[in-house]
Amino acid sequence: MRKRASVKVWKSSALPPDWLKRQAPSEKVSEQLESDVKDIIRLVTEKGDAALVELTAKFDKVRLDTSELRVKPAEVEAAYRAVSEEQISALKLMKNKVSAFERLKLKQATLETSADGIAIQSALRPIESVGCYVPGGLAAYPSTLIMTAVPAKVAGVSRIVVCSPPNAKGDVNPLVLVAADICGVSEVYKVGGAQAVAALAYGTETIKSVKKIVGPGNRYVTAAKILVSRDVAVDMPAGPSEVLVLADETADARIVALDMISQAEHGVDSIAGLITPSEKLAGEVQQWLEKIVVSAERGEIVAEALEKYGFIIICRDLAEAVDLANAFAPEHIEIMTQAAENIAGKITTAGLILVGAYSPVALSDYASGTNHVLPTGGFGSAFSGLSALDFVRRVNIVKCSREGLQRVQKLVKVMTAAENLPNHYKALEARLEK
Question: Could you tell me if 270 and 366 lie in one domain?
Answer without folding.
Answer: yes
